[in-house]
Write a structure and sequence with these properties.
It is built from eight helices and five strands; from the N terminus they run H-H-H-H-H-E-H-E-E-H-E-E-H. It has helices at 2-22, 32-50, 58-77, 95-98, 100-105, 125-128, 158-165, 188-198; strands at residues 115-118, 135-138, 150-153, 169-177, 180-187. The mean pLDDT is 82. It has a five-stranded mixed beta sheet with strand order 2-1-3-5-4. The chain is elongated, with a radius of gyration of 25 Å. It is of the alpha/beta class. The N and C termini lie far apart (76 Å). It is 47% helix and 15% strand.
């Protein structure tokens, strides 16, 4: 029945929006599913208007929604394009993270050497480090980092990691995304060996 379908679409739209609102890291295309449901609901509203089952002029609501969406789009793509208050801001990955795996693969690491990633908000590092065989992820710096030849530390954990690694590793600041810093620590002996091999 048509009424059951309308109820399903309305509930599905609300549930989708609720779930996506709870996700801290989101991309703009997540809204495509609830947006498609909203378009179908709009079609049903025009069907009701055509059948004379509602006295509310739907075209007025359409104009208001279109004006509001235009305003939101101009704000999201201009003033708030890279702002924490914009939940749909998509900030691309930094170029130096895209080349991180290739850079690390040039280091004279042993076959069983582990690349340690410390922190929580590290995505999309797993994607860019997928070519490395031994990558481990730790939620905090409360582990033995000194024994790891390569340590990648995300925001919020630099102080604890630096306290452990400042005398045994060389630190290289990088960026994950705009205004999102990460730090790469390479064991001093490995770094010196690689530097000398480059000469």
């Amino acid at each position: 029945r048509k009424s059951a379908l309308v109820i399903f679409l309305a509930l599905s739209t609300l549930i989708h929006i609720l779930i996506y609102s709870l996700i801290s890291y989101k991309t703009p295309w997540l809204m495509l599913a609830p947006w498609a449901h909203l378009c179908l609901l709009a079609g049903f509203s025009f069907d009701l208007q055509k059948a004379g089952k509602t006295e509310f002029p739907v075209y007025i609501l359409l104009i208001l929604c279109l004006a509001f969406q235009t305003y939101q789009s101009s704000q999201a793509s201009g003033r708030f394009e890279n702002n924490a208050r914009n939940p749909y801001a998509y900030v691309p990955t930094s170029k130096n993270v895209e080349t991180l795996s290739a850079w690390l693969s040039k280091l004279p690491l042993e076959d069983d050497a582990v690349v340690a990633v410390v922190g929580s908000q590290y995505w999309p590092l797993p994607w860019y480090l997928r070519d490395l065989e031994n990558v481990g992820y730790w939620p905090d710096a409360n582990t033995d980092l000194v024994s790891k030849p390569v340590v990648i530390v995300t925001q919020g954990f630099q102080t604890e990691a630096r306290a452990q690694l400042e005398s045994s590793h060389t630190e290289f600041p990088r960026s994950l995304r705009h205004n999102v810093a990460i730090h790469v620590y390479i064991a001093n002996d490995i770094w010196e060996l690689w530097i000398n091999s480059e000469d």
